[in-house]
Design goal:
The complex is a heterodimer of chains A (259) and B (234).
Chain A: H1 8-30, H2 39-50, H3 55-86, H4 88-103, H5 106-116, H6 121-144, H7 148-156, H8 161-199, H9 205-214, H10 218-247
Helix pairs in contact in A: 2-10, 3-4, 3-6, 3-8, 4-6, 5-6, 5-8, 6-8, 8-9, 8-10, 9-10
Chain B: E1 2-11, E2 14-24, E3 29-33, H1 40-48, E4 55-59, E5 66-69, H2 81-89, H3 96-109, H4 125-138, E6 143-147, H5 155-172, E7 175-180, H6 183-189, E8 192-197, E9 202-208, H7 216-233
Parallel strand pairs in B: 3-7, 3-8, 5-6, 6-7
Antiparallel strand pairs in B: 1-2, 1-4, 8-9
The chains are: A mainly alpha (259), B alpha/beta (234).
Chain lengths: 259, 234
């Protein structure tokens, strides 16, 4: 098998430059910033937005909403998913509800939430409802992937349920949970922004996207979108790092030999 | 004394035991011998409570007061040798110092005292099974079940594991019930051997194995016993 001598990082950078060049070419061909502004113009807006007195508050509030929605989904999704993974009867009870939530269009959820809740809570509620099914499903299949022989062994040796959960089920479920967490977090940023566009809370990237659309400020729209992508990327990387720490058995909490 | 009285058990329309009776002595190693598929594993799983006993009575075993050495070692892949021991022993030894002492003592008996920090995937097959032996003997239970613990291992490894088992056994004198289809294995370990035969299964022969050291007579007896057991297995 041939091994490529090109560094993957170099290839990725070259790819980035290529797509930027394509964007620049398309902007030159269309020649109307209202449809497609040039990359440089968007970068200028990006820098200008950094000087906006509310900039960090806008970013902070959107991040706060994503983290609250994600945190709630993780807490409820993992707890309920683990219980459903352990008790099939419970899973049969919850699966129709989870399937219903998963199939409901985001826009219907947002509109309903606007009717029920205030503008700050609409994105959180929507984000929670969209992330929950992903985490619930990964928790159910994660728990199911635990080795039944190890569970049987632990039962025979009278290990406490908390010990079995922590040392048998959790290590088996972590890889599946990790995949679920990462995709739920990515989706969370998109759904929360969509919820903000319609609910228009005061400090929110979605509200800024809405304003940009109303005033046809396409460079602003793209600049805020880039900030959203950046935020999502940073938090996905952070989550990945945290979960890697847990998944690395040599660094995860162990029984202390020196006890 | 452990006694099973009028046990009946079927699986997938196959009657494995029907009004089956068996008596075993405490503080003895009872070997149950029989061909594959006769119901040996089913028998100890019924005794251990892994399978539900629907008909018949079982006396002499307290639920939870048992250890089990499985065919495969069943170790936690994400825990070290020490962690695997601590996983089952923490409940029995809440004092960390006492727990550590028990773990080290039992790991030393099976020769794993130098491997505390190693993970199961860093151990050989024999080391994994020795860890499983140490875990079973370290648990303060009165009864130990073993399901063909040396199956599929090469003769050298079997000798090594048998020695590890004997060292641990001498230190605890648990009541041991083990099943195997290997005649040499059962003769090397047991105080008493029972042969399961026919279908539904029943005890077709029982032999007491002499253990006097340094005497020629037991060797002659052992040969006779082996021949007798073989005749019941065919």
């Amino acid at each position: 098998m041939k091994t490529s001598i090109i560094n993957p990082k170099t290839t990725a950078m070259a790819g980035g430059v290529l797509w930027l060049l394509l964007w620049q070419t398309a902007a030159l061909v269309i020649d109307q910033a209202i449809y497609l502004p040039a990359p440089l113009e968007v970068m200028k807006r990006l820098v200008l937005l950094l000087g906006d007195p509310d900039f960090f508050r806008v970013l902070g509030m959107t991040t706060y909403r994503v983290l609250v929605a994600f945190g709630l989904s993780v807490a409820l999704g993992v707890t309920l998913g683990a219980l459903c993974g352990l008790k099939p009867t419970l899973e049969h009870l919850f699966r129709p509800l989870v399937s219903l939530i998963r199939s409901t269009p985001v826009i219907s959820v947002i509109i309903l939430a606007i009717v029920w809740l205030n503008s700050t809570h609409v994105p959180i509620f929507t984000g929670f409802l969209m992330c929950f099914p992903i985490i619930w499903t990964s928790a159910v299949s994660g728990v199911r992937s635990a080795d039944p022989h190890l569970v049987e062994m632990a039962g025979l040796y009278q290990v406490r349920p908390a010990g079995i959960l922590l040392k048998v089920y959790l290590p088996a479920a972590l890889p599946t949970l990790k995949a679920g967490f990462v995709s739920a977090l990515g989706l969370g940023f998109k759904v929360i922004a969509a919820g903000e566009v319609l609910a228009l809370p005061r400090f929110a990237i979605g509200s800024r996207l809405h304003d940009a659309k109303v005033y046809l400020q396409i460079p602003d729209l793209l600049a805020w979108t880039l900030f959203l992508i950046l935020l999502s990327y940073v938090f996905e990387q952070l989550l990945d790092l945290m979960l890697k720490h847990f998944l690395d058995r040599r660094r995860s909490p162990r029984y202390d030999i020196s006890d | 004394m452990i006694s099973l009285t009028d046990i009946s058990f079927s699986h997938a329309d196959r009657v494995i035991f029907e009004d089956f009776n068996l008596t075993l002595n405490h503080h003895e190693i009872s070997g149950i011998l029989g061909p594959s598929g006769i119901g040996k594993t089913t028998l100890i799983n019924l005794m251990a409570g892994i399978l539900p006993l629907k008909k018949g009575t079982l006396q002499g075993i307290v639920k939870g007061d048992l250890s089990y050495i499985f065919q495969d070692p069943r170790l936690l892949p994400s825990e070290t040798v020490y962690g695997n021991m601590a996983f089952v022993l923490k409940r029995h030894y809440p004092d960390p110092k006492a727990c550590r002492e028990v773990i080290l003592r039992n790991l030393t008996l099976v020769g794993l005292e130098e491997s505390l920090d190693r993970f199961p995937d860093e151990l050989s097959g024999g080391m994994k099974q020795r860890l499983s032996i140490a875990r079973a003997f370290a648990t303060p239970s009165h009864v130990l079940f073993m399901d063909e613990p040396f199956k599929g291992l090469d003769p050298g490894l079997k000798t090594q594991l048998t020695a590890a088992f004997k060292r641990s056994y001498q230190a605890t004198r648990k009541t041991v019930v083990f099943v195997t289809h290997d005649l040499d294995e059962v003769l090397a370990l047991s105080d008493r051997v029972m042969v399961l035969g026919s279908r539904p299964a029943r005890v077709v022969a029982t032999e007491i194995i002499p253990r006097e050291a340094g005497s020629l007579q037991p060797l002659v007896d052992l040969g006779k016993i082996k021949a007798s057991l073989l005749s019941h297995m065919i």
